[in-house]
Amino acid sequence: MGKLSLRSIIILTIPTLFWVVGLLFSNIWWQENILSVTAIPFLFYCLALILTLFLRNTLQFIFCLPFLLLWGYVHPLDNSSSLPLCPQTLKVFQYNLRYENPNLDPLFYYLQQYPHHLLVFQETTPEHGSMLKEALKAQYPYQFGGQPRIGYPSGQLVLSQYPLFNMKTIATQAGHQIIHGVWHPPKYKPIELYTAHPPSPRNAQLWAERNALLETLNNLVEDYLDTDNASPAQLIVGDFNLSSTSERYQALFGGFKSNPVSSWPNWSGLRQYLTIAIDHLWAHYPLEICEREALINMAGSDHRPIVTYLTMHRSDQPK
């Protein structure tokens, strides 16, 4: 049976207490970053549970198990989630290419074999952008990014099988760009599209700039939805450098749905359940997310690409 000593209780409780107390003081850049990596306590409790089995200490095992289940729930293990029925699917492909990506051939091969309706890229260099636009222009004739005086706003490129209207950029005070326009697949109502790539919060300044962009985008979406002629179908896509387990993530885009999928870092040998979700997509009714899935066999970037399957409710489609 074994014993459950006070020392064992303290050791097994400290990681959870640290996270709970830390959430009360998470308005510090490094602290918010650490608290966002819920794989740390999850892995701790996995190892602790294995140790209790090895020591044959039943009481410690029973005490540890609820903590493991808690962190398994907070840090989802599943690669994707789906609805049982998803008619008339729209497919959105999103991918942070990584500026230093030496080889896009696997990406070209995948996109030619498995076409999607909308492609949204981040960390696109001019060389990457030129190759993508040229190689995929037959399949994706509607493009935003790479044009004169536009370039690649915050490294972003949007390619589509279907028309893109009124595409423009909106800059934050720090100069980070949000792309905003209308995406109009046939047989669907127009979809208001937003894409963004705020900076990685690796220091206090970039953390503040990321948060300012998130606030700007959140206000932009809310203000648009409050207008008289607003289209209810809204889509927000990008690498937001924000973990889905953070409190800040939970406060964004009220009324939108998002299924987080772990996608970073894409390191060789690192299991997906030890990664975090920072590449996001939000959809507003009548759009609905049917499924999101990270592709695990794409090399060249520190991010995994994500495919999202969407549907629009029939009652809200044009006749």
From TrEMBL:
Q: Which domain of life is it from?
A: Bacteria
Residue ranges of every copy of the Endonuclease/exonuclease/phosphatase domain listed in the record: 94-303
Q: Name one Pfam family in it.
A: Exo_endo_phos
GO MF terms, alphabetically ordered = endonuclease activity; exonuclease activity
Q: Which residues form a coiled coil?
A: none
Q: Where are the transmembrane segments?
A: 9-28, 34-54
What are the record keywords, sorted? Answer: Endonuclease, Exonuclease, Hydrolase, Membrane, Nuclease, Transmembrane, Transmembrane helix
Annotated protein name in UniProt: Endonuclease/exonuclease/phosphatase family protein
Organism name:
Photobacterium indicum
